[in-house]
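Write out the 3D structure for:
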Amino acid sequence: MKKIFYSIAILSGTIIGVGLFALPNVTMRAGIWPVMGFFLLLGVIAYYVHYLFAEVALHTPDYKRMPGFAHIYLGNIGRKVALTSAILGLTGALLSYVILGGQFLYELASPYFSGNIHFYSLLYFAIGALVIYLGIKTTSSVSFWGLILFFLILILVFFKGFPYLETTNLLANKIDFSNIFLPYGVILFSLWGAALIPEIEEFLGKDKQLIKKIILPAILIPIVVYLVFIVLILGITGSYTTEFAIDGLRGFFGNGIVSLMLFFGLLTTFTSFVVLGLTLKKVFWFDFKINKELSWFLACFPAIFLYFLGFQDFIWVVGFVGAVMLATDGILVSLMYRKLGILKPEAVTSLKKFIVYPIVIIFTLGIFYEIYYFITKL
């Protein structure tokens, strides 16, 4: 039982990340009902993708990661697609952390020190890149307790902000059809933790069959957290909800509580930045056999280059990574499960075999739409 609870905490704690801060603004811009609809649709899809990946992992000997599974079931092309998706997806995620972490650092430091938002984003990146270069690992316990402390602050904000919470802010949130698909990529990004499935399987060891029991609660917990956060922020700030959610609370709470939220938001984003950077560094180091120093450079610096090239729209970056790169991973998982059904028919059920096709169709349509949206915005 202890392993089940700890596994749920690891997976749900990993899923709850930077996407949390984008959701209130996306809801304000698209409307609360489209967001609820996407949570229902993508929550079901996210559950099945994680479940299908768990089935693939359980029926494949040895502990592997996404590119390794793709190589076994989809051949060399599958491995190359998985590696490309991992590199681009992790780079996009690092970019989103540079944008958000720089904003949090700016909000905390600007009342006392000079410097614009770009300086603080560069400072955030430089410290993170140095930690990744030195190979200092943030432990899961640091990330976990940082997240717990942040949630405690959210509870404090909820009680402090309850008198300011206006239901009219939620009821007045009309559907904007020009932004109706905006939540898709952001919510998909916010519900994704499939890459951690092999880690959970390895952690469970001889009890690895339990992995199928932890997926549903591990998906539901983030959804509940996200919906509470959306209601809290949007109910308080309404049409003044900012791109980064927290900074818009200053007009209601003053600096004390908001600064506390920003500090723990900065802590959680920084630990995640380092973990993702180390992961990407290992992809170049172990999968591509590139030397350690160059792997570090290739893992870290594309994110800051993209930032100064002008890719600074936090919500767009999160949405693009979710709708394109993570959807690609979802398609790979679905195709791997389909191949598993050919190789081991007894390992799959007819329902889950059928669900593969709508998942692939929805993700493919989402990829094309997001690329079209990107081109039209250039």
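The chain has 15 helices and no strands.
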